[in-house]
Amino acid sequence: MAALRKLLVRPELGAVTAAIGVFVFFSIVAGSRGFLTTQGTANYLEVAAAHGILAVSVALLMIAGEFDLSIGSMIGAAGMIIAIPVTKFGWPPWLAILVAFAFSLVVGYFNGWLVVKTRLPSFIITLASLYLLRGFTFGLTIALLNYTRASGMGAFLSGDPLVAIFSGAPLGLKISIWWWLGLTVVLGWVLFRTPYGNWIFAAGGDALAARNVGVPVARVKISLFMLTAATATLLATTQVIDTGSTDVLRGELAELEAIASAVIGGNLLTGGYGSVFGASIGALILGMVQQGIFYTNIDTNWFKAVLGAMLLAAVLLNNYLRQRALRSR
Amino acid sequence: LKAKFSVALALAASFVLPVSAFAQKKPHIIVVTHGQVSDSFWLVVKNGVEQAAKDSGSEVEYRAPEKFDKKLGCLMHVGQEEYVAGKGAGERMKAQGVTKAVCINQEVGNAGLDARAKGFKDGLGGDVEILAVGMDFTQSRNAFAGYLQKNPNIEGILALGPTGSEPALQALQQAGKVGKVKFGTFDLSPTVLQALDKKEMDFAIDQQQFLQGYLPVIFLSNYIKYGLLIATNSIPTGPGFVTPENAKQVIELSKKGIR
Predict the structure, then answer these.
(1) pLDDT of amino acid B70
(2) Reported confidence tier of residue A221, pLDDT bands at 50, 70, 90
(3) Crossing angle, helix B190-197 and helix B247-255, to 10 degrees?
(4) What predicted TM-score, i.e. pTM, was given to this entire model?
């Protein structure tokens, strides 16, 4: 019984149940039309990975009590920082990738530093970064390319030492899926097994109390903003290499999908509670729903309505299960 | 889509100086559109506007406001009727023997795109399904891969713009179906042009939107300066078809932002 109760109070229980529900739903409705095939599975896992790579870092930041709305714009910016120098100026891809990551760390540091210094809500600070990054991406891309899309990366990639870890499909699954799984394991371990993980919970639970017992709250928050910006760049890198192109709108609304994944996965919007594994399950649900509908006979004009309804159902189920579990304690 | 743009352009210009003033100073023309410059299509329109401003010696402002709250007259329509262009694509595919086709719409609810889709349906006259995808490349590509799995017998594909056709092209490549399905798109992009050149796509519908930016500014500047206006109220700039045969020329012009 004790083991069962321990399981029931885990934040990701609702999400896991919802994920099974969504999987069963599509298996029944679309199982015979390709949803259950290897290719169908690889398809929705890749879309889930795009949400998941962001969601695992966003979950940590949310647990620490902050938001990062700028990661979608960061994807667009990082994609261009990689694609333009390579395709237009002949830089080796590894150099462009390193510059993109360095840039993202600076942006993340800046976001975090502003939030900590000004004590303004991170929602507002990073909303400004969202517009700033997207605006600079538009402006600079058009100034440099006289076009909004950079393509033709494919010709420059072979033999590059850094490209290898961001491309390919080991065991038939796109590299982004492996990054997603790897990040889930590593960040999940950091959250639950290290002092730094405890600091994250403490910073989001009660920042003042945490500071009083010696938790470096500012450092924790700033480093997490750097992490979210870096994971956005990681996603942009795998996508630019995989698709061979990028455009100035890439990543739009990704920040909301990442927050949605984290919330479906049992992370609280108010901070102090949540899990990395849950966020990954949330991303899986989102990916399954987004791709699953194309295997069904549901008219795709209803796509957004179906997506909204399924998300609502997942969150409600999650909430219901968590409250029951907490009451039973 | 473009119809609206052109009307708006004529509208905008009619609140410039009255003709009788016979402008001592430069004609001042405001181009009002609903198209963001972030869209590569509108960038070419804007290049047309800028070239015309240079050629006619006018002062031109390019604006894409969120709201349209001015009512003005309209002199002329320069552009492409979306429905007619879609119908042209449908008829072209029908002539190639396609009876079952899918139309990829990356922005359901955009009136211009919906008119293209309706025209395509009517022009083909056969079985046409509208597939609503999003703007995200990976999601859109994998969604179309799923659609191909579910519908292996599809004969024709029409994408309503490069945002839909580029992911669809990759999905076709991954499924090993390039060349086995008739594949057309609206509007050009470097990737679309390369695919046409390699015969991976059959046609792209081009509406020569450079002229949609260029011509109205030229017409209006002459109207403002001299009161001269050509005697028609509609100038169609499309649909024109770019095919593997003429793709190479178009690629050169596309690099200059003219097509």
Answers:
(1) 66
(2) very high
(3) 160
(4) 0.83
Look at residue B103 and give its three-state secondary structure: strand
**Which residue in A151, A248, A291 is closest to B190 by CB distance?**
A151
Structural tokens at position B12: 């905008």
* A38 at B interface, C-beta within 8 A: no
Phi-psi bin for A147: left (phi > 0), alpha (psi -120 to 50), beta?
Answer: beta
- Residue A312's identity, in one-letter code, is L
Q: Does A295 touch chain B (CB under 8 A)?
A: yes
- pLDDT over 90 (residue A18): no
Confidence of residue B15 (pLDDT cuts 50, 70, 90): very low
The distance from CA B9 to its chain's CA centroid, rounded to whole angstroms, is 16
Cβ pair B241, B204 in contact under 8 A: yes
Residue B100 structure tokens? 């079952």
Q: Is the pLDDT of residue A271 over 90?
A: no
A239/B137 touch (CB, cutoff 8 Å), yes or no: yes
Contact in structure between A293 and A306 (CB atoms under 8 Å): yes
The share of chain B scoring above pLDDT 90, in percent, equals: 48
Provide the strand spans (E) within A37-140. none
Lowest mean pLDDT among B8-17, B42-51, B122-131: B8-17
Residue A290, Ramachandran bin (φ over 0: left; ψ between -120 and 50: alpha; else beta)? alpha
CB-based contact B214:B52 (threshold 8 Å): yes
SS3 A161: coil
Burial class for A211, CB neighbours closer than 10 Å (0-12, 13-18, 19+):
middle
**B189: nearest CA partner in chain A:** A149
CB atoms within 10 A of CB A121: 12
Q: What residues of chain B lie within 8 A of the CB of A300, using their CB? A: 130-133
As a whole number of angstroms, the distance between CA B54 and CA B148 comes to 48
CA angle B248, B251, B255 (to 5 degrees): 155
Asked if residue B6 lies in contact with residue B79, where contact means CB atoms within 8 angstroms, the answer is: yes
Four-point Cα dihedral B206, B254, B44, A97, nearest 10: 120
Least CB-CB distance to A46: which of B108, B142, B189? Answer: B142
Residues of chain A with pLDDT > 70: what percent?
96
Q: Within 13 A of A288's CA, how many CA atoms are on the CB side?
A: 26
DSSP H stretches of helix in A194-302: 195-205, 207-212, 217-243, 254-264, 276-292
